[in-house]
Amino acid sequence: MVRVEFLGPIDKEAMELEIGSLNELARILSEDSTLAQWLKNSAVAVNDTIVRDRETPLKDGDRVSILPPVCGG
């Protein structure tokens, strides 16, 4: 299982999924209208490393974090 965590202001509980790539995750998350707005602008980390390639493979025990943009000062 891959654990998917939503950080910051994304109001969604973590989930455990049987997926093999970030592409699969993107398809699943885009079906949720409350998440779709965040996906376009959020960074993605796999096991605490930022990744940009949606073909990134995922394996059992991986942790994916969805990191929305933040404002600060």
Which properties best describe this structure?
single chain; 73 residues; alpha+beta; Ubiquitin-like (UB roll); 2 helices; 5 strands; 22% helix; globular
Quick structural gist:
This protein is α+β, with helices and mostly antiparallel strands and 73 residues long.
Describe this structure in words.
This protein has 73 residues and is an alpha+beta fold. It has one domain: Ubiquitin-like (UB roll) (Roll). The protein contains two helices and five strands; from the N terminus they run ββααβββ. It has helices at residues 22-30, 33-39, and strands at 2-6, 15-17, 43-46, 49-51, 63-67. It has a five-stranded mixed β-sheet, with no helix packed on it. The longest helix is centred in the middle third of the chain and has 9 residues, at 22-30. The chain is globular and about 25 Å long. The N and C termini lie far apart (37 Å). The model has no long low-confidence stretch (mean pLDDT 91).
Q: What would CATH call the architecture?
A: Roll
Low-confidence spans: pLDDT under 50, at least 5 residues?
A: none
What is the count of helical runs? Answer: 2
Q: Tell me the count of domains.
A: 1
Shape, principal axes of CA atoms = globular
The largest sheet, given as strand count, sense and whether it forms a barrel, is: 5 strands, mixed
Instruction: Specify the helix fraction band.
Output: 10-25%
Rounded average pLDDT: 91
**Classification by helices and strands:** alpha+beta
- The largest sheet has its strands arranged as 2-1-5-3-4
Order of helices and strands: EEHHEEE
Strand percentage, roughly?
Answer: 25-35%
